[in-house]
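Input record (one chain):
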Amino acid sequence: MSEDTLSAMWMRGEVDDLLDLPFEGMRVEIIGGQIVVSPAPNVAHAGILSDISAALTAMSMKDPEYPWMSTKVVNLYRQTVNKFCIPDRSIGAYLHQESWEFGETVQLPEPFNVEIETSRWRPWK
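The corresponding structure, as predicted from the sequence alone:
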């Protein structure tokens, strides 16, 4: 008898049949115990994340103690997480928001203390 957890079904290659998604290119996540289906990020989104990663990697080369990456999974909505960077190209509302035009250099404050070049980024079409 096989186990019917989502993880076990994924290992057996049965999740696609369970979800019956209309087409490829969908992201399927479990958030708060619910299955959430959304469009997968596109190449432009991956490029933005690559630029952010490169800026943080450069900082870590200058300072080996630079805390640019966490191996812990954190809940970004907890009040104890007071600074985080979300590369979101859609319009949204946050408690505190700083904005830069595409093409400007983004200057993130402590604890990040890093500059991120955005001249190659493009907004949603």
